[in-house]
């Protein structure tokens, strides 16, 4: 904020600008008050939840709180207040309601434009010629400065018809030298009228914005006056996905060359003509390297066949939940394949037990919170530093949790089918796998990085609802793979796809590796 003297010097002779400045200050104050109100509201919600839990767990129906229970409740209180005062954590359930996701995004959205390098269009408004000279002596006034008013605008996309004209030249003599004509540059799809910009637009609308083909067809018809049938768009996408397969396979070869990856799967509805009256269920399998690429694969089944084929040749450690398929794969290849578990899955089960009035679940949540605090402290540390710090602080917490879980399971009052019983059983059954992350500082404590990649698809699944045919699953997986890998590396998918699809048709197979997201660099713009 400017000092009083600076404000008077700047606006003293111009009351209109003084009013604008005052209005801007009022707007800034209102925005800060709104942010403060939102923070207080979130904190109030957390405190209300704590009060409800205290009433459910230790209300009149229970005995007076013991010192241990008081400490446990304080730990949970601190955990909930921490969550209330920061953005939603990555461990949120990825299949939550879409409206809830949108509300969270709205709360975090800034009202101001993010400062980026935009194209600037200047329009200079000169005063009338009569006002450019003194009204008394008629001498020309000198320019002493300028005022710049800024507004952000959008130039709507438009469809154009680009024609490539190649003049033909024939000889007037009788030497038989033939006709001369320029060579036609390689096209994205041979014998097709699909242009590069339109192709990228359809891919991003369909697989990044999750618009259905029939919606795209309507938009082209109503806003651009062009009829592009959805069947035509499907054929184009299939051919583009086939073109991108070379990059897709190279991404997997690069991932497979490592010795650590995370795996998860999520269901997706498929309109299978062989299943009458309802949609079939298919699965998208996610393979991910933390800090690296992500690869998706479609399969009609959740069984072992898809991951078994995909992991053939891979030697190392996979990180997953306790789904039996992953353990079965490990048993098939005990010497070349190891598995570590995901603590986030166990934590969700204990949170569910807390919601259903389980006293003991609070203690486990508090201990898990301590483990995640260790991870927070080690963000940015080297793998060697992470391993050393983990081995110093985490094993005692894990042993205490295991002993508590075993004593609960052995108690006569233990109910295996209760929410707490299921949480304890999951924890003990997968305990050895979950502590496996302590072996290597590169390993993560949970599988949330790959689950976060599922979230965009989970939101989109509610919008486009189905994969149109079982045969369409592979092309969805190919395009999702490239978009997710770009986002993980901070690459603009539109920039990447525009460049890659422009270069691919004229490249040899030995050059395709240049287009991997891990190697890709935007070509310098031609300033000539």
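^ Assign residues to that structure.
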């Amino acid at each position: 904020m400017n000092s009083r003297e600076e404000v008077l010097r700047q606006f003293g002779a111009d009351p209109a600008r003084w009013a604008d400045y005052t209005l801007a200050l009022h707007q800034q104050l209102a925005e800060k008050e709104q942010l403060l109100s939102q923070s207080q509201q979130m904190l109030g919600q957390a405190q209300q939840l704590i009060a409800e839990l205290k009433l459910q767990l230790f209300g009149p129906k229970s005995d007076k709180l013991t010192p241990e229970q008081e400490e446990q409740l304080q730990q949970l209180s601190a955990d909930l207040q921490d969550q209330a005062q920061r953005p939603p954590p990555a461990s949120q359930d990825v299949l939550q309601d879409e409206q809830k996701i949108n509300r969270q995004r709205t709360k975090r959205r800034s009202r101001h434009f993010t400062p980026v390098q935009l194209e600037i269009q200047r329009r200079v408004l000169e005063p009338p010629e009569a006002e450019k000279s003194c009204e008394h002596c008629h001498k020309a006034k000198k320019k002493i400065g300028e005022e710049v008013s800024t507004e952000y605008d959008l130039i709507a996309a438009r469809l154009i018809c680009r024609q490539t004209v190649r003049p033909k030249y024939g000889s007037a003599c009788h030497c038989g030298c033939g006709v001369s004509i320029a060579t036609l540059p390689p096209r994205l799809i041979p014998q097709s009228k699909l242009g590069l910009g339109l192709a990228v637009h359809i891919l991003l609308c369909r697989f990044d914005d999750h618009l259905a083909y029939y919606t795209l067809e309507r938009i082209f018809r109503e806003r651009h006056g062009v009829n592009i049938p959805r069947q035509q768009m499907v054929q184009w996408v299939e051919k583009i996905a086939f073109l991108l397969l070379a990059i897709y396979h190279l991404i997997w070869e690069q991932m497979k060359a490592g010795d650590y990856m995370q795996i998860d799967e999520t269901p997706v509805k498929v309109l299978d003509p062989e299943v009458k009256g309802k949609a079939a269920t298919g699965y998208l399998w996610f393979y991910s390297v933390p800090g690296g690429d992500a690869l998706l694969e479609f399969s009609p089944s959740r069984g072992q066949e898809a991951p078994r084929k995909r992991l053939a040749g891979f030697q190392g450690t996979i990180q997953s939940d306790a789904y039996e398929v992953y353990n079965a794969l490990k048993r098939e290849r005990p010497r070349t394949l190891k598995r570590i578990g995901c603590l986030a899955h166990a934590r969700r089960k204990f949170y569910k037990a807390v919601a259903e009035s389980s006293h003991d679940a609070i203690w486990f949540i508090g201990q898990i919170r301590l483990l995640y605090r260790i991870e927070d402290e080690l963000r940015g540390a080297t793998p060697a530093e992470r391993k050393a710090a983990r081995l110093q602080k985490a094993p005692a917490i894990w042993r205490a949790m295991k002993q508590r879980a075993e004593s609960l399971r052995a108690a006569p009052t233990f109910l295996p089918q209760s929410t707490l019983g299921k949480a304890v059983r999951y924890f003990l059954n997968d305990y050895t796998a979950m502590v496996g992350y302590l072996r290597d500082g590169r390993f993560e404590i949970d599988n949330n990085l790959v689950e976060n990649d599922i979230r965009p698809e989970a939101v989109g699944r509610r919008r486009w609802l189905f994969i149109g045919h079982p045969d369409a699953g592979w092309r969805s997986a190919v395009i999702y793979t490239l978009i997710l890998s770009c986002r993980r590396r901070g690459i603009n998918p539109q920039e990447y796809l525009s460049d890659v699809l422009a270069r691919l048709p004229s490249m040899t197979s030995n050059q395709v590796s240049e287009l991997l997201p891990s190697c890709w660099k935007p070509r310098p713009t031609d300033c000539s």
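Residues 15-58 form the longest helix (44 residues).
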